[in-house]
């Protein structure tokens, strides 16, 4: 008789039963079904089930992921299209705003307003390029370079600080590589370039050029050297400390509420004040707002330099009067804190400082009117700090005189014209 084997029999028992079967001449082996036992069957079935489930789950997950990727791609594509559309709208809006600004700032062929927002970085880079290219086959005018940038930036330099150097290099390379190409020809089809070129030249026109400077030797003798470069000066004499910050447009309340249309440089009473540019004295005397002040007009009449709050009792350089011709770098007065009074020679300003400003004049009707154009000279002040005029005290007096002179061709030309006209 064959022996029945119960489910769940272990391997050792099965082997023993098989051996017994062989001894009795029965050669039928115990099926693997019984070797695995009941537990083994469930395990195998469960494993198969789980494997299928896992495979199905993986495929489902892949489908979900694929759907998500497709959705993400669609959303990204929509965003890109939206950004392109917005960029187009923004560009159109900027162009419209620029056109509106041009319409507001230029009327009857005359500029009515200038926002001089050229940064210190742009001034330095354009000036360096100008000076380094002087005498070369292609000379790059710094005003033209700044006008080119202003056209591209919409006059807003601060948001393009990182690209200024690269943009200047790009346009100079183009002008160099294409023989005979000038900036005027390059920008002839741009309707905004002429405005920026005229506006920026009105600000900077007399500051860079050829001149002669005095070179003093140790024995006291001096020679004259022809140079090309910056012939405008910082309004504070060399070696005198001052502090300043961008305060253009700040509120003022004396007399009436108004904006501060200049730049304050805080220092000590008696600090020598320097003529920024060559020109002639157009106004001098007391003003209830500016105290003792000087107004100097550039020879091309585009710029009016205003120096205010000069020293009590001794505000001006000796013999300075209306009509006097000054050369850039000359001592013209001394720092104080006069003003805010209808009574002359009154110190009514709390902090000792020089207020200096620049008014642009494109038409004489703009001068001393409700349409005056004053610009922010803060970045220009920082730029001019690289060129300070050294002054020395005249023994036994309150006077200071510049140590080294310059010969400005603009002064010579003006004096010649004045002589002819008289």
Quick rundown:
The strands form 6 sheets. Strands 5, 8, 10, 11, 12, 13, 15 and 16 form an 8-stranded antiparallel sheet that branches.
β content, as a range? 15-25%
Write down the Rg.
Answer: 42 Å
Strand pairing plus helix content: what structural class? alpha+beta
Number of strands: 19
Fraction in helix: 25-40%
Note the total helix count: 9
- Give the terminus-to-terminus CA distance: 152 Å
Q: Low-confidence segments, ≥5 residues, pLDDT <50?
A: 1-10, 21-39
| Overall pLDDT confidence | 85
The ordered H/E elements are HHEEHHHHHEEEEEEEEEEEEEEHEEEH
Largest sheet: 8 strands, antiparallel
Query: How would you sum up the global shape?
Result: globular
Description:
The chain contains nine helices and 19 strands. The strands form six sheets. Strands 5, 8, 10, 11, 12, 13, 15 and 16 form an eight-stranded antiparallel sheet that branches. α3 packs antiparallel against α4 and α4 crosses α7. The longest helix has 74 residues. The radius of gyration is 42 Å and the shape is globular.
Essential attributes:
single chain; 422 residues; alpha+beta; 8-stranded antiparallel sheet; 19 strands; 19% strand; globular
Topology:
Blueprint: H1 11-23, H2 32-105, E1 106-107, E2 110-111, H3 120-133, H4 142-153, H5 164-177, H6 183-186, H7 193-204, E3 208-216, E4 222-230, E5 243-244, E6 251-252, E7 258-259, E8 263-266, E9 272-274, E10 279-287, E11 291-297, E12 303-308, E13 325-326, E14 331-334, E15 353-360, E16 373-375, H8 378-384, E17 391-393, E18 400-402, E19 406-407, H9 409-421
Antiparallel strand pairs: 1-2, 3-4, 3-19, 5-8, 6-7, 8-15, 9-14, 10-11, 10-13, 11-12, 12-15, 15-16, 17-18
Helix pairs in contact: 3-4, 4-7
């Amino acid at each position: 008789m064959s022996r029945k084997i119960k489910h769940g029999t272990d391997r050792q028992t099965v082997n023993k039963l098989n051996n017994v079967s062989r001894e009795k001449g029965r050669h039928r082996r115990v099926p693997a079904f019984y070797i695995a036992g009941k537990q083994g069957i469930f395990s195998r079935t469960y494993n198969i089930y789980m494997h299928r489930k896992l495979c199905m789950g993986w495929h489902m997950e892949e489908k979900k992921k694929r759907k998500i990727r497709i959705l993400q791609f669609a959303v990204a594509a929509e965003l890109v299209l939206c950004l392109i559309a917005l960029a187009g709208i923004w560009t159109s809006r900027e162009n419209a705003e620029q056109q509106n600004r041009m319409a507001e700032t230029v009327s009857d062929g005359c500029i009515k307003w200038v926002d001089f927002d050229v940064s210190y970085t742009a001034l330095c880079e354009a000036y360096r390029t100008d000076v380094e290219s002087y005498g070369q086959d292609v000379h790059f005018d710094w005003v033209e370079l700044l006008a080119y940038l202003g056209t591209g930036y919409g006059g807003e330099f601060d948001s393009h600080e990182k690209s200024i150097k690269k943009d200047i290099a790009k346009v100079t390379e183009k002008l160099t590589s294409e023989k005979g190409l000038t900036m005027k020809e390059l920008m002839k089809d741009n309707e905004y370039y002429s405005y920026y070129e005229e506006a920026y030249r009105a600000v900077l026109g007399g500051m860079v050029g050829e001149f002669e400077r005095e070179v003093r030797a140790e024995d006291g003798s001096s020679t004259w050297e022809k140079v090309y470069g910056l012939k405008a000066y910082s309004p504070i004499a060399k070696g005198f400390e001052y502090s300043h910050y961008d305060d253009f447009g700040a509120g003022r309340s004396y007399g009436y509420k108004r904006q501060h249309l200049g730049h304050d440089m805080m220092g000590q009473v008696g600090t020598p004040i320097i003529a920024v540019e060559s020109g002639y004295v157009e106004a001098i005397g007391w003003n209830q707002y500016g105290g003792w002040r000087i107004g100097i007009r550039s020879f091309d009449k585009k710029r009016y330099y205003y120096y205010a709050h000069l020293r009590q009792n001794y505000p001006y350089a000796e013999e300075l009067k209306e009509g006097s011709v000054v050369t850039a770098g000359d001592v013209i007065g001394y720092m104080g804190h006069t003003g805010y009074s209808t009574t002359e020679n009154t110190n009514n300003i709390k902090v000792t400082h020089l207020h200096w400003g620049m008014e642009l004049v494109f038409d004489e009707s703009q001068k001393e009117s409700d349409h005056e154009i004053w610009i922010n000279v803060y970045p220009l002040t920082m730029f001019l700090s690289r060129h300070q005029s050294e002054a020395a005290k005249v023994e036994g007096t309150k006077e200071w005189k510049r140590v080294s002179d310059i010969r400005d061709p603009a002064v010579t030309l003006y004096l010649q014209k004045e002589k002819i006209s008289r």
